Amino acid sequence: MRMTSSTIRTRWSPERNKATPHSRRSTRAAAAVAAGALALSLTACGGDDNGNSGNTGGTEETASQVTLPKLDGTSLEIAAVWSGTEQANFKKVLQEFEKRTGAKVTFVPAQDPIINFIGSKVAGGQPPDIAMLPQPGAIKQAVDRGWAKPLGSDAQKELGENYSQGWQDIGKVNGKPYGVYYKAANKSLIWYNNQVFENAGASEPETWPDLLNTAQTVFDSGVTPFSIGAAEGWTLTDWFENVYLSQAGPEKYDQLAKHEIKWTDPSVKDALTTLAQVWGKPDWIANGALQTDFPASVTQVFTGGDQPKAAMVAAGDFAQVNIPSSMKIGTDAKVFPFPAVGDQGPVVSGGDAAVILEDSKGSQALATWLASPDAAQIQAKLGGYLSPNKNVPNSAYPNAVQQKIAKALIDAGDDFRFDMSDQAPQAFGGTPGKGEWKILQDFLKNPKDIAGTQAKLEAEAAAAYGN
Asked: Which phi-psi region, left, alpha or beta, contains residue 305 (left: φ > 0; alpha: ψ -120 to 50)?
């Protein structure tokens, strides 16, 4: 995945290679509970005409302010791939840090893959003080190359108070904490234009066959069912991961994520065959998917009145920042959980972690700030953002839909599966025009070539994993 995200699963850590049979059964049960709770909570979303609602659970009292040192005269740089509204909202979080400490923080726009961008900065002797890394594999690479510095005691204290053990563990390498997961994403969602559904007489699907029926109903009403921002290959990996997790189950998901089974495995064939039920119908996908970026794929669904370019888009909670303000969240723009392909619906997540590259009093303070509920609340109120910080008041999120999604993530605790492509080496799972991204783009062009797609995925994965 790119664009931030989070997969709901049982506790996973980079150091843990194999789950016990007991933990695998627990994973299955917990994922089913989490997915069910998510389905129930999203279906229950109502809200007023502005898409807002009252308290929906979670911590409602603002936590005590995090203690930060005075840093007058200190200049810091923080790099991330975020752009547009996402970048602008994050800068407001940095501005509050500047106000509280006296430091000056510069946002450095980075390019994907960010690990390569950071490498060039390190080679030039000018690394940013902190980088927001979207993959556990990227954190490990930064540690292995000697770039990343461990978190200090203040940041660790904030992590211990504000994060479940699972979110703490995925920021560790060899047992040491390096990453603060500031931003999460629930990527097992499908957003839709409610007016289109009402005009077509379509209902929210709960299973994959229901989704196909809903798509046909929408198509028969004269609207293309799906928008896909396939110009960015990570959107296609999200489709695959949701189908695979639900159909193959958590145990297979974990094995494929670590390349313990091959991409030529029958379970991958099954998932690609399922995807082809949608991807193999060009009339069901808005024209120019391979030239459409992610933001455009969202706006295609929510512009054009009751005749938009498409009715639905599979996208994480962060899609909200791309929904026009004229469309009220929870009323005009609605969302349902990604439908169950197998026995249970998937819940997949991703995230962006703050990793220190230049160790100093200032960089440690900034990491501590990003681990605090104080920082996360600022961006939560702006919308299009989800925090794994359990002490962010649920009421901080700006509408009923966002509050329900956030509550489902926090209530899941350690029961989440992290985005598979983000667990892979970046050469395979996180590089534009290469690896899984490119191969799935090719598969979207030709969904009949399942065996060829599997062979290509396995060849690229074997090279990237070194096995």
From this structure: left
- 37: how many CB neighbours lie within 10 A of its CB? 19
Q: What is the dihedral of CA 423, 425, 427, 430, to 10 degrees?
A: 20
Q: What is the model's pTM?
A: 0.75
- On whether the CB atoms of residues 187 and 6 are closer than 8 A, the answer is yes
pLDDT digits (tens, 9 = 90+) for 270-305: 999 999 999 999 999 999 999 999 999 999 999 998
The residues near 230 (Cβ < 8 Å, ≥ 6 apart) are: 236, 289, 290, 292, 441, 444
431-465, pLDDT tens digit by residue?
899 999 999 999 999 999 999 999 999 999 999 99
H-state helical runs in 102-135: 114-123
Measured between alpha carbons, how far is 225 from 308 in angstroms, rounded to an integer?
10
User: Angle at which helices 250-257 and 21-43 pack, to 10 degrees?
Assistant: 110
The phi and psi torsions of 329 (rounded to 5 degrees) equal -65, 130
CA separation for the pair 400, 54 (Å, rounded): 8
